[in-house]
Amino acid sequence: MDLALYDPSFGYYATAARRSGATGDFVTSVDVGPLFGELLEIQIAEMAALIAAGSDARSAGAAGLPFDLVEAGAGNGTLSADILRAARRRHPDLLARTRLHLVEASPAARADQRRTLGDAADRLSSTGQEVAPFDGVLVANELLDAMPVHQVVMREDGLREIFVTEREGRLATIEGPPSSSALAEYFDRLGVRLEPGWRAEVNLRAVDWVRTAARRLGRGFLILIDYGHDARELYSVTHAQGTLTTFDRHVVSDADRAAAPAWLERPGRRDITSHVDFTSVERVANEEGLVTIGFLDQTYFLLGILGQKGSEDLETWEGPEGLKEDLAGSLQTRLALKTLLMPGGLGSTLKVMIFGKNVGQPALAGCSYRMRVT
After folding, report:
1. 30: helix, strand or coil
2. pLDDT band at 30 (very low <50, low <70, confident <90, very high)
């Protein structure tokens, strides 16, 4: 999975600046249009104000201190561009002190970032593959699900791992002893028991990434947006065949074929992904000193930012500045909002997990509507 997605010469993500959207293989909230970034900017601005308010009062002009905006898994920078352009309209003072840091594994995507940022490129402070120490807000939108996983299967005689081999000139899978004791320990820490025949994925890379991000954050917030479940749901009979799957031209396939699973076909030319274990993400974040502020469906997160009402009640809605006019005057914006909020689609599939460090446990706009995970 690591080679198929990130190999510099033929990896799926490494060889293209952008893989999502109408002409890509899958759709994210960013592909719906700039509205997602505009809504995120409202939440980020509130977080920036909270960080500034809690800064050392002896620091002259605490509100003028530099603010780090980090986007991990930034791709070509489309989401950050949408956020910064919204900040230019709504919070120019925040924009003036923002230092943008884009974290992206793909050289092709990194090379396209300044073009994508356009008039916001002057805010770009760094771009690279690792999260550097920062004070501010980190956003990771559908990053953890694309990190390489271990796939395991429980047999009568114990846990086995699924490996990739070659058979008659084609890629195929084979079972063997686990490559690391960390795999069994992962389930032991969760108190999870897999039944014989159950398959599951273990994303050790995601846990390590969250640990590193937590340590690099001095003061501020993490906003993680992804699809997945808590461990009790993820490692249950409901997902007993695992969640490892592939997207190709907007078609999802996780069924085993006669010779090999679908995710082994055309490696490097299709997405491979698995659902996130949010229980382990939260556990490692808390172990590293982060406080869980919210865990909720994207629907409820965005409704909180919108002031708890959407586009159907515009006459009485007192929402964020400028959005009422946008929604009233633009059918495209109203349709984008519906797509972002729709239960059964992006609204309920995507979950938002928010952590804070050295900021207390503030009542954020994004957590003000309903703290619910479906």
Report:
1. helix
2. very high
**Per-residue confidence (pLDDT) for residue 279, from 0 to 100:** 98
- pLDDT of 181 > 90? The answer is yes
Does residue 209 form part of some domain?
Answer: no
The answer on 100 and 53 residing in a single domain is yes
Asked whether 201 and 145 are in contact (CB, 8 A), the reply is no
Residue length, the chain? Answer: 374
Range of the domain at 253: 150-204+235-269
Is residue 59 scored above 60 in pLDDT? no
| C-beta separation of 367 from 293 below 8 A | yes
Residue 17: closest CA among 86, 121, 114 = 114
Strands, E, within the chain: which ranges? 67-72, 98-103, 124-128, 134-141, 150-155, 158-167, 170-176, 199-202, 217-229, 245-248, 251-253, 271-273, 276-277, 291-297, 350-357
- DSSP H stretches of helix in 60-112: 78-90, 92-96, 107-111
Q: β-pairing, 67-72 with 134-141?
A: parallel
97 with 229, same domain?
A: yes
Same domain? 240 vs 326: no
Average pLDDT, the chain: 89
Tell me how many domains the chain contains. Answer: 2
The H or E element spanning position 282 is helix 278-287
Cα–Cα distance for residue pair 149/2, rounded to 1 Å = 8
Rg (CA), the chain: 21
Strand 158-167 with 291-297, pairing: unpaired
CB 304 within 8 A of CB 366: yes
Q: Classify 205 as helix, strand or coil.
A: helix
User: The whole model's pTM is what?
Assistant: 0.91
303 and 370 Cβ atoms separated by less than 8 Å: yes
Does residue 257 share a domain with residue 335? no
196 and 324 in a common domain: no
Q: Domain of 45: which CATH number?
A: 3.40.50.12710
C-alpha to C-alpha distance for 215 and 21, rounded to whole angstroms: 33
Answer yes or no: is 213 within a domain: no
Work out the end-to-end distance of the chain between its first and last CA atoms, rounded to an integer number of angstroms: 29
